[in-house]
Design a protein that fits this description.
With about 325 residues, the protein is of the alpha/beta class. It is about 55% helix and about 10% strand. It is built from seven helices and six strands, in the order αβααββααβαβαβ.
């Protein structure tokens, strides 16, 4: 039997399949290639947009930083200005307080001076012109060369110590010429022990130093001037001496007035003329513990010893 063979065809179905597959692959590659390029373009655009946004953010950051620096500088300037204003205000308040304190001090000084000057100016007389002595008011010769203060340093007097110091200073000022002065307490204790039995020269510097010490003086006192008078008279009583004693106090606690009066009669009398050697004046202060015993005693003491008693108002 004769076998029949199919005729060979170059363009058969298998060949066409291969060609179709190849063409399809090429088309697919073309499509893939175009899609990748589009995505690349899109990615490039996105990156460009992001870079623009980054630059914008950076610029905003720089602008914000610059504005913040300017604001900080302005704030620092305002703080400095406020500090200057505060310093000026503080200085103004300090000056105002010092001025007020100075005004109060000047007023107190004027009040203290008037307090002493009024009774002294109405009662004072010149040693060369004095002829009669008023029993009630008396006269205070202010031409003494030396002045002694015997000051009660008890607690009641310390309570008004500023006033006591002003009166003491004012009395020194009222005397036109003072060569020297001395300060003791009522018990006979010297304020400056180095000048015991001597005179403190009355210069502006010396007076300031002594008043500074007087301001902080603390010494025992029994509110009886007999000891202080005895020490002063024994140390400074000389015939012909131009000396005035001022006794400062607000009370007398001694048992008898005669003790003080007899001591003065014994130590302050010129044996030839029978007159007092030193003038004894007294200033009565008003405190919470003031009694009339000091004024009773000192009126008699000053009357017997050529002086005057001044009772200062409260």
């Amino acid at each position: 039997m004769k076998v029949s063979r199919r005729a060979f065809e170059i363009f058969n179905i298998s060949f066409l399949d291969i060609i179709s597959c190849g063409f399809g692959a090429i088309v697919l590659l073309v499509l893939i290639s175009k899609t990748s390029d589009a995505e690349l373009v899109d990615d490039t655009n996105a990156i460009s947009d992001l870079l623009k946004q980054v630059r914008m953010v950076e610029q905003r950051f720089l602008n914000t930083t610059e504005a913040l620096n300017k604001a900080n500088k302005t704030l620092e300037n305002q703080k400095a200005f406020l500090g200057a204003l505060t310093s000026i205000e503080t200085a103004k308040n300090s000056t105002l307080k010092r001025t007020e304190a100075l005004g109060r001090k000047l007023k107190e000084d004027v009040d203290g001076l008037n307090m002493v000057a009024k009774p002294i100016s109405t009662a004072s007389i010149s040693r060369n012109t004095a002829k009669e002595r008023d029993v009630e008011v008396g006269g205070i010769p202010v031409d003494s060369d030396y002045v002694i203060f015997i000051v009660d340093t008890s607690g009641s007097m310390k309570a008004i110590w500023g006033r006591v110091m002003k009166v003491l200073s004012n009395i020194l000022d009222i005397h036109p010429k003072v060569k020297g002065f001395q300060i003791l307490n009522d018990n006979g204790t010297y304020l400056v022990s180095g000048y015991a039995g001597k005179w403190i020269k009355d210069t502006a510097k010396q007076r300031k130093n002594v008043l500074g010490v007087l301001g902080t003086w603390s010494s025992f006192s029994n509110s009886s001037p007999v000891e202080g008078l005895e020490v002063a008279l024994r140390a400074y009583s000389r015939a012909g001496a131009s000396v005035s004693i001022y006794v400062f106090g607000d009370d007398y606690t001694g048992s008898s007035y005669d003790t003080v009066i007899n001591t003065l009669d014994r130590l302050n009398k010129n044996r030839v003329t029978g007159k007092p050697i030193l003038k004894v004046h007294a200033v009565g202060f008003s405190s919470n513990y003031t009694t009339n015993r000091f004024s009773i005693l000192m009126r008699e003491v000053t009357k017997r010893n050529g002086g005057t008693f001044l009772a200062l108002p409260r």
